[in-house]
Amino acid sequence: MIRGRRKALGISQQALADRLGVSFQQVQKYERGDNRISASKLYAVAHCLSCPTTYFFDGLSTCHISTEGGPLMLTAEDLEVVRLLSTIPSSKVRRQIVTLARALAAEA
Q1: Which helix or strand (DSSP H or E) is residue 5 part of?
Q2: Distance (Å, rounded) from C-alpha 71 to C-alpha 62?
Q3: Distance of alpha carbon 75 from alpha carbon 71, whole angstroms
Q4: Rounded to whole angstroms, how far apart are CA atoms 31 and 73?
Q5: Residue partners of 44: CB distance under 8 A and separation at least 6
Q6: What residues are paired with 63 via a beta bridge?
Q7: pTM for this structure?
Q8: DSSP secondary-structure letter at 1?
Q9: Could you read off the pLDDT of 48-71 as tens digits, one per residue?
Q10: 18, HSE (Cβ side, Cα atoms, 13 Å)
């Protein structure tokens, strides 16, 4: 969503990075989803891109993404699990939860 909005406005990654006070590599990581964006930084991004913060959440009651297995539709419950998982600071605990989810899926 950040990349699409930035490109629609004709703003370079470097220009957005300068406005946010981060490196253009950090903007790349935000756009790819490699790094999480804090609420305050998301607010700053929205301000720089002249849109409300809710712009980045439009359509998230369901989410359509492509995977190696084809299109995948995520429900609100799926998104809640992702949101909750992303709030767990320990990467070890997150990996354990993913392992548990895989085991439960295999039994289904």
Answers
A1: helix 2-8
A2: 13
A3: 13
A4: 21
A5: 19, 20
A6: 74
A7: 0.55
A8: -
A9: 999 988 888 776 555 566 667 666
A10: 5
